[in-house]
Amino acid sequence: MSKSAEKSAALMTCEHMSCSYGAAPVIENVDVTIHRGEFVGIVGPSGSGKTTLLRAMLGSVKPIHGSIKRQPGLRLAYVPQLETVDWNFPVTVGEVVGMSRPQRLMRPQAQASEISLIEDVLERLGLGGLTQRHIRELSGGQQQRVFLARALIQKPDMLILDEPTAGVDVRTRHEVLHVLADLNESPPNGDGIAIVLTTHDLNGLAAHLPRLVCFNRTVIADGTPAEVLQPYFLERTYGAPMEVLQHGGMPIVLEQGGDELRNRLNRSTAS
Predict the structure, then answer these.
(1) What is the CA radius of gyration of the chain?
(2) Are residues 91 and 212 in the same domain?
(3) Among 108, 123, 154, where does a domain finish?
(4) Separation between Cα atoms, residue 74 and residue 55, nearest integer Å
(5) For residues 32 and 14, what is the distance between their CA atoms, to the nearest angstrom?
């Protein structure tokens, strides 16, 4: 198979997929395909079903209609939102990463070769020497990289991340994106891992990705940022009018009505 054909191979395909939690569908008639080596961002408002879509991709939520097809032997890894982690739980960096060892059920204690692998992955992500550090003692960027290391131990073909830059500062966001870009880059410089992530950050993250999916219970638009970040698709996705400007060849999304709100707040402050 040629390199171009290999990269175009479909790892996962959702066809007319609908999912629910026992009542009405949460997501409906979803059609999306993830190819080998792709980097895909899924954007949409809170409550739009983005996390449910990720759960369906991971297999923890089953479709009630349609289907989801995965390449045979596909290795998936998941990085949760940092907000869902209990940082006071008494666990070290090495223990967090080791939790995803394939042999963990047969051998609760990591063997020397597994410890070496954990240390190698941490070193690669700039966390060398922190194996025995408690996770609560790390910075936000370091905490996110710990969970990336935990996922990479599984040697995935596809990495799924739920809001990987939520609640972090600009520097940490850049750190996380550079790490993901390295993982996504084709061998020999990178791992060629397909990456799918959700985000609310249209300008700081989504606009920089090669492919975006606007999502609100179903796929509203799918394409490059220039194709997807358009007022028509954004209003259908977020239910509010938005303006799109161009700066340095990139789309910048602005909420309409911002001037009116700013004037009201200024009048309120003045009074």
Answers:
(1) 20
(2) no
(3) 154
(4) 15
(5) 5
Mind listing the pLDDT tens digit for each residue in 184-213? 998 888 889 999 999 999 998 999 999 999
| HEC readout, the chain | CCHHHHHHCEEEEEEEEEEECCCCEEEEEEEEEEECCCEEEEECCCCCCHHHHHHHHHCCCCCCEEEEEECCCCCEEEECCHHHCCCCCCCEHHHHHHCCCCCCCCCCCCCHHHHHHHHHHHHHCCCCCCCCCEHHHCCHHHHHHHHHHHHHCCCCCEEEEECCCCCCCHHHHHHHHHHHHHHHCCCCCCCCCEEEEEECCCCCCHHHCCEEEEECCCEEEEECHHHHCCHHHHHHHHCCCEEEEEECCEEEEEECCHHHHHHHHHHHHHC
**Distance in angstroms (rounded) separating the CA atoms of residues 268 and 165:** 33
pTM for the model stands at 0.86
Domain region containing 213: 34-62+156-250
pLDDT digits (tens, 9 = 90+) for 3-48: 443 456 899 999 999 999 988 999 999 999 999 999 999 999 999 9
Q: What is the pLDDT of residues 127-182, one digit of tens each?
A: 899 999 998 899 888 888 899 999 998 899 999 999 998 878 888 888 889 899 99
Do 166 and 54 share a domain, yes or no? Answer: yes
Domain assignment of residue 18, yes or no: no
pLDDT tens digits for 230-241? 999 999 999 999
Say what the pLDDT of residue 54 is.
97
